[in-house]
């Protein structure tokens, strides 16, 4: 264990980071690169939710499911798929990528960059002070010369419905760390976690019932959720949209669970998973000692400095600021805020104008998100509705992927759709959405176009290779030019 007492006997540092997930690691790395001393406090595993119960294990589990689905879309390869997935090997693959829930490698990374690791629950204790408590150890008080950065993430929210306390429901943690395939699995929630878990467990052999109050993936263009719903249905899942659970009962802890829905129907399953939102993990970190409400989302400026706290020392990064509950966006915030902390500590001017070195401008304009369903759904920037509500004068352009020869070669009878949202006054893209097999690898090109505000007259000169799925860009731009 890398203990900060080894190098900082007085427990005073330039920067203290609460949370050693990817977001906390990024702010620590950039602060250290700028010459500041850093202590990172972690109550669980170094690497956080993403590394052990979210992004990494879910994608490790989903990849075999999608790989088999991709093979079945290609004649010649389809005939070679003669059996079911080897679930033991799939779970072993997951265990490999989460390093068997051993965080020593990520703890070593902190040591390598020169940051100290303090194990325990960190709580603010007034301005620039953090008290750390750990079982079997005396409390320690750390002091920050320049900044405290909160990167503690979020927790799943369970709905307040009768019977949920005794139902032993799954959340994302059980959904990614279970090594037993339930014969029947009910999933409540149609957002990203819900649809990915439905894809995963249906592919592993569960009979999945997905229950969603709203259309799937409601923050994307509607066609993305519709194509994902169609894909789940074709895979054998029972997709129920427009209903919600009103009660749950499990009289025998080892027996089945029954969900009552508001349309009067019931769903019986061996396990039930709720993917119904997240809450900030800020209820027990001492926010009240600096005048903030415990358990609240934290409002931040463009450098991720928390508003309402005097002295320009408290930062909030990742899920806790509620800007975009996505690991990659939190890491971006961590890099940007780490550099801002260094600049403030050195009393250098901040470059916090839009798209500046110390501004998280992409949080408002170019957030990319991908869901590894079958088909995949990927988007960046604003949807057409969001752009219109924001006051932009826009035009949408839709193209079916079958227009691209590369898509047809990628998968026989390829089914997918793309949309770009054009700002008519500036001739740039405000948003792009793709839905179809393999579209996750198209998203970064769209992100560059949106973040870079590339004029469409210039974008047409970015020639897509033939025959690739990315040829869809040619057909989108041609459709726009021809009106």
TrEMBL record:
<dbReference type="GO" id="GO:0006103">
    <property type="term" value="P:2-oxoglutarate metabolic process"/>
</dbReference>
<keyword id="KW-0547">Nucleotide-binding</keyword>
<dbReference type="GO" id="GO:0050660">
    <property type="term" value="F:flavin adenine dinucleotide binding"/>
</dbReference>
<dbReference type="Pfam" id="PF07992">
    <property type="entry name" value="Pyr_redox_2"/>
</dbReference>
<dbReference type="InterPro" id="IPR036188">
    <property type="entry name" value="FAD/NAD-bd_sf"/>
</dbReference>
<feature type="binding site">
    <location>
        <position position="319"/>
    </location>
    <ligand>
        <name>FAD</name>
    </ligand>
</feature>
<feature type="binding site">
    <location>
        <position position="59"/>
    </location>
    <ligand>
        <name>FAD</name>
    </ligand>
</feature>
<keyword id="KW-0520">NAD</keyword>
<dbReference type="InterPro" id="IPR016156">
    <property type="entry name" value="FAD/NAD-linked_Rdtase_dimer_sf"/>
</dbReference>
<feature type="disulfide bond" description="Redox-active">
    <location>
        <begin position="50"/>
        <end position="55"/>
    </location>
</feature>
<feature type="binding site">
    <location>
        <position position="122"/>
    </location>
    <ligand>
        <name>FAD</name>
    </ligand>
</feature>
<feature type="domain" description="Pyridine nucleotide-disulphide oxidoreductase dimerisation">
    <location>
        <begin position="367"/>
        <end position="473"/>
    </location>
</feature>
<keyword id="KW-0285">Flavoprotein</keyword>
<dbReference type="Pfam" id="PF02852">
    <property type="entry name" value="Pyr_redox_dim"/>
</dbReference>
<dbReference type="GO" id="GO:0004148">
    <property type="term" value="F:dihydrolipoyl dehydrogenase (NADH) activity"/>
</dbReference>
<feature type="domain" description="FAD/NAD(P)-binding">
    <location>
        <begin position="13"/>
        <end position="330"/>
    </location>
</feature>
<comment type="similarity">
    <text>Belongs to the class-I pyridine nucleotide-disulfide oxidoreductase family.</text>
</comment>
<feature type="binding site">
    <location>
        <begin position="152"/>
        <end position="154"/>
    </location>
    <ligand>
        <name>FAD</name>
    </ligand>
</feature>
<dbReference type="InterPro" id="IPR001100">
    <property type="entry name" value="Pyr_nuc-diS_OxRdtase"/>
</dbReference>
<dbReference type="InterPro" id="IPR023753">
    <property type="entry name" value="FAD/NAD-binding_dom"/>
</dbReference>
<feature type="binding site">
    <location>
        <begin position="189"/>
        <end position="196"/>
    </location>
    <ligand>
        <name>NAD(+)</name>
    </ligand>
</feature>
<keyword id="KW-0274">FAD</keyword>
<feature type="binding site">
    <location>
        <position position="277"/>
    </location>
    <ligand>
        <name>NAD(+)</name>
    </ligand>
</feature>
<protein>
    <submittedName>
        <fullName>Dihydrolipoamide dehydrogenase</fullName>
    </submittedName>
</protein>
<dbReference type="InterPro" id="IPR004099">
    <property type="entry name" value="Pyr_nucl-diS_OxRdtase_dimer"/>
</dbReference>
<dbReference type="InterPro" id="IPR050151">
    <property type="entry name" value="Class-I_Pyr_Nuc-Dis_Oxidored"/>
</dbReference>
């Amino acid at each position: 264990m890398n203990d900060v007492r080894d190098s900082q006997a007085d427990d005073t540092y330039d920067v203290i980071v609460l949370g050693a997930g990817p977001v906390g690691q990024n702010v620590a790395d950039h602060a250290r690169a700028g010459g500041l001393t850093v202590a990172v406090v972690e109550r669980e595993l170094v690497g956080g939710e993403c590394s052990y119960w979210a992004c990494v294990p879910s994608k490790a589990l989903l990849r075999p499911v999608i790989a088999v689905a991709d093979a079945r879309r290609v004649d010649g390869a389809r005939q070679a798929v003669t059996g079911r997935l080897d679930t033991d090997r799939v779970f072993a693959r997951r265990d490999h990528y989460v390093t068997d829930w051993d965080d020593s490698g990520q703890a070593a990374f902190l040591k390598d960059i020169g940051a100290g690791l303090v194990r325990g629950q960190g709580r603010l204790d007034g301005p620039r002070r953090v008290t750390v408590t750990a079982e079997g150890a005396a409390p320690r008080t750390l002091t920050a010369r320049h900044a405290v950065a909160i990167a503690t993430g979020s927790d799943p929210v369970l709905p307040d419905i009768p019977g949920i306390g005794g139902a032993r429901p799954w959340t994302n943690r059980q959904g990614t760390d279970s090594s037993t395939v339930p014969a029947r699995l009910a999933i409540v929630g149609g957002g990203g976690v819900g649809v990915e878990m439905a894809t995963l467990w249906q592919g592993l052999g569960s009979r999945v019932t997905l229950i969603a109050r709203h259309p799937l993936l409601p923050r994307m263009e509607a066609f993305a959720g519709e194509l994902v719903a169609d894909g789940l249905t074709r895979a054998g899942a029972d997709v129920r949209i427009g209903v919600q659970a009103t009660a749950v009962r499990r009289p025998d802890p080892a027996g089945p669970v029954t969900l009552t829905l508001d349309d009067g129907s019931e769903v019986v399953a061996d396990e039930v998973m709720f993917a119904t939102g997240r809450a900030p993990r800020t209820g027990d970190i001492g926010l009240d000692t600096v005048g903030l409400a415990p358990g609240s989302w934290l409002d931040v400026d463009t450098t991720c400095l928390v508003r309402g706290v005097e002295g320009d020392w408290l930062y909030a990064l990742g899920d806790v600021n509620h800007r975009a509950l996505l690991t990659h966006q939190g890491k971006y915030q961590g890099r940007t805020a780490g550099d801002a902390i260094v600049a403030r500590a050195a009393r250098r001017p901040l470059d916090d104008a839009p798209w500046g070195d110390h501004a998280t401008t992409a949080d408002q304009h170019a957030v990319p998100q991908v869901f590894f369903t079958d088909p995949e759904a990927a988007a960046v920037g604003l949807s057409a509705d969001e752009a219109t509500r924001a006051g932009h004068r826009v035009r949408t352009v839709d193209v079916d992927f079958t227009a691209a020869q590369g898509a047809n070669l990628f998968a026989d009878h390829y089914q997918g759709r793309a949309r770009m949202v054009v700002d008519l006054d500036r001739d740039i893209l405000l948003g792009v959405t793709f839905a179809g097999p393999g579209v996750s690898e198209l998203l970064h090109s769209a992100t560059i176009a949106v973040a870079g505000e590339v004029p469409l007259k210039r974008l047409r000169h970015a020639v897509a290779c033939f025959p690739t799925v990315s040829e869809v860009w040619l057909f989108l731009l041609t459709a726009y030019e021809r009106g």
